[in-house]
Amino acid sequence: MTNQTVPLLAVPEALSRWLESRGLIYQLLVDFFGRKPTLSLVAQWSRKAQMGVAAEMTEGGRELKRYLCSQEPGELMHICEKETLEYKRLMNERAAIVPREAAHMGCADEFCNVLSDVYASAGIVFKKCNGDESDDHIAIELEFMAVLHERMLYNSFSIRSAMELLEIQETFLDEHLLKWTPQFCERLNAATESPLYLGLSHMLAEFLPQDLQMLRIWKASLESSATSMA
């Protein structure tokens, strides 16, 4: 990863913490919604110091930290076996909570072409986690946000280019993720008693609206900075 190139400006501490942590939170959500919880994945996150970052941002993050970071090493295999069965039950095309935007918005499968065009217009092509996810799968939509975040902070060379990437994220949250994930989270909450998937659901429901609000605050900061330098 290269050094950060987009200036953080003179922003409040809360905004700086958000900019530094949102990529990690998106990655955590992608990891667990995109694939079954293998031993390596659970062990990685249960040991990860950055779990504290997720815990600071949302109550769902605190739930996940309590669950994953309180396990003894010898318990992890049992946790993985139990949560893998739950993942297979919840995250499949026959489940009542199908983790796809089209299913929750009542759209035809061709709707994926719309999202494919959105990704392509941003210059992003995905290598799918399991090789068979549709472009409207929750993990793919979240990964789109994670990739744009990384590009915005680490591969942009001007406030203008950062603003362009910011606006793509703002639009995608407003027109896609926040249109259907509240219903997805409600159904997930009703369908499981798993501490892992309840924590993830609560984190997702809390974090996405917060993320949109913070994007808009940072956008205002960038616009103010650009005006002052004009």
Please explain how this structure is put together.
It is built from ten helices and no strands. It is mainly alpha-helical. The chain has one domain: Orthogonal Bundle (TorD-like). The longest helix has 35 residues. The chain is globular.
Keywords:
about 230 residues; mainly alpha; TorD-like
CATH homologous group name: TorD-like
Q: What is the CATH architecture term?
A: Orthogonal Bundle
Provide the structure class.
Answer: mainly alpha
Average residue pLDDT: 85
Large-scale geometry = globular
Which band does the percent of strand residues land in?
under 5%
Number of domains: 1
Helix content: over 70%
Radius of gyration: 18 Å
Strand count, sense and barrel status of the largest sheet are:
none
Q: Outline the low-pLDDT stretches.
A: 1-10
Secondary-structure element pattern, one letter each: HHHHHHHHHH
Task: Provide a quick synopsis of the model.
The chain has 230 residues and is mainly α.
Topology:
Layout: H1 13-34, H2 39-47, H3 51-57, H4 59-68, H5 76-90, H6 101-105, H7 111-121, H8 138-154, H9 159-191, H10 195-229
Helix pairs in contact: 1-8, 1-10, 3-4, 4-10, 8-9, 9-10
